[in-house]
């Protein structure tokens, strides 16, 4: 089996050459007694033209057959500028069928009408589509670029175990029954967090791994039970240096994969700034439409929603949807209100600025002076639409306006979808207060280090204690994040205490790890990037499933292999486990 | 926190420079009021000298404390040629304790008297030992070199799922209970075999992955339940080209990692030649001591063991242990006999060639002419020791003599342990006959392709049907192997039939995969390398555990985290499984 060229290679300069090609029949069409075949391989498509002498033999050739073709390159009479090889075609002199193919249950082309479930069931055909080939090649380019970058910076790729110890609490572990130790279980890692910290304790100083992680979380539309993480940790480096290394990695990937040179350093927003301006810690910064804090502006306005919010130490924020007052009918505004309500806002207040003055249901609550102050604060001009949410809870105001902002950004085409706008969000709060359980939880993991200047706030003012933690954000998606870690024994104990851990909980959950921190732990920190998400955004896809070779569907099954499946009783017996008969299996 | 240099960096050219270093206290010793500290980091060790002014402050500094030291580089009065930085030392001007350390339960140095269980329990300390750091860095160099090689040859790194479908039969799967589909299970992959073949069906043409694999096999001294495989597959290429790509990869690794340029192409032995010459399909070819087939030579000798073996269509083979007759006492020969018996030989026959003639218990069975023929066949000279095994079973003869050969090779120092002798073993048999079940089994997996010229032997002569399969062997270890795969529907059916699979078995075990082969499968083949083993041999280690960051011990537990562990009943309930109470847990 031989080929002289691949199917993406031939150009006008090859005209007259004798060539041999191999590929799949992507398309076959007859023109009288002539037959045209588009021959496809990983590298592209070349048009083959067969004269009438082949007509009979070609009758058996169907789509997705694999052919080897001998012929000579000729110039096309009607060139196809959309194809890399569109200037030429190959006049066949001989051909051979390498393998046949059954009629495929889906069209193997970028334009396919197959349902996603069909695409996943016949994934090997779906992956033949040039778009999917391109996606996985882009993903490979990303990992290659990342590895080159980290290798050249002296990071060591170290593999950590996939059969670990289960940690109760946190996201759900996938368990793996042990046969040798019946009744005991390994757990698949949710991330290599503890191991990468122990590698710092081990003195490796610079570690990375592109690691699979597993979370048995409740399923959402676009979540996978296994995902891939670029995991990085380093010792003795300042947060500035860690961010520099992180953004350098992103810049190299953008250069290598997209040919785009992004400007460094990336800008940084504090978590507080991000919440104030965008209402969200992963803002899409490709467009403005920023939130305006109106707490002081509307403090005296006699509108019950605002008043109640502010009296309960809550918040009022607004957005100026510039030059859209006339575009937004009542119905469109109702639509925005629905979005706000999804995020628990009780409603959405609005005003329209027009030549005739300011209109809207809440206009009457403003004195002229109050209105002028408002318009100035929001930089409002004629035909601007102003939207407001007030609520006792900061997160309700932020969540609802952030959702409206993202919706409007897309709807009003406020940005070029092909742009990539990266930023760091830094200085996250250490703790999150949970109303239900009335206690503070670590916003990150309990080994996240407070900012040096906030260490004493662990006990005195946990709410305002900031973490030396950071996220990297792209176009409204969190790509990843990290932090400095606590490396001092006594600080770790204070952090555990502030989080309400009992000694017993610490021992049972983290004892083996905390033990390790006592033997000379270097200052260390790092980050992790969600590779699937990076690949999705760089490929311009809407779904993680389009950048994973063999993904699971939204009910965590593989439509191709049908995993998971029942297994033989003998297998379970050997593991010393049984299936509870009273539990019913959800249908797939 | 700052350092101007690392601890492996300073040389005579730096004398007079002011430097800042960071590292762990590897050793501290007093010389009068002077204190010497060896400061260790990932890059090496530098000696720091503290004058008497530091004596008091240094009292609290103990081994494995982390120090930051400011000082100036001075020439050592007594240089240490064994240390890269042995020409200099740093005269401390100031220091700071970055972190303290508890007394370590083991000595953190290459020379340690810690038991392996202790080393594994405190793995983070064990990994600080320069030897272990070196091992993991070598491992990283190997993967980096492999990736560079394959990336540059246009291979795409594609991740395949870790949560798969269980395949009954074969090695035991690790199962993962599904929470969403209660009573059903995922399985961790034993290898990405089926997925990599489907990627060829998908048209990627050149795939690789450095993938974790999982096998719940019975434990042996040096086996891990998870291991790492360099997995490679390609389409449209001849076996010669696949081997060329494989050995090119090995050559690059040897060049990049060991600085050794091995000669290519590697020599190839057929499986039959390997068995004949070495009695084993993974021969250590660093030394001779080859087996001699004596079936025809001793056909008429009136010695019952030989006679019985040959009459039962068995075999007689010998080894000439050159110039060792006088060295091998009766006791030493008994020792060899024990080895032979371990491999089921009924005994070990022997002769010693001396000036006075040939001596030994079996000498009397030979006529003079028979003895002369034997000595000629074995190229025997004075003081040679000749060893023989005869048995009705070929594998008994081979196994026992191969074990004796490997033993003698090491014992008699017949090779330089620092040499690396690679070779391919090719043309493996397709089938292995199992006496117990009286049927043929695939020696590889059932998708292995027979050699073109042997296809018809599938039905007519399965015993002599050879596979287009190959192993790569180094110094007596199988590093990996692979094959061409069956890509034609009808041939696959013939192979399944020859292996005694029923249609039902095919459907239930491989149905989803075999379905995929029908839509235009290209000719394809590939190989897989055991990365852990490659790393072990290149590091010159005796155990896989020395090249894995966090290995399991021989009872498949992690002495550090204590995984596996019992889990909360709530976790099991959520998965719909229970532990069988009548099963006892083996003690760890």
Automatic annotation (TrEMBL), chains A, B:
CDD domains: AspRS_core (cd00777), EcAspRS_like_N (cd04317)
EC number(s) per entry: 6.1.1.12
BP GO terms, sorted: aspartyl-tRNA aminoacylation
First-listed, main subcellular location of the protein, grouped into a coarse class: cytoplasm
Domain named Aminoacyl-transfer RNA synthetases class-II family profile: residues: 139-551
Catalytic reaction annotation: tRNA(Asp) + L-aspartate + ATP = L-aspartyl-tRNA(Asp) + AMP + diphosphate
PANTHER family: ASPARTATE--TRNA LIGASE, MITOCHONDRIAL (PTHR22594:SF5), ASPARTYL/LYSYL-TRNA SYNTHETASE (PTHR22594)
Subunit structure: Homodimer.
Protein name: Aspartate--tRNA ligase
The species this protein was found in: Coprobacillus cateniformis
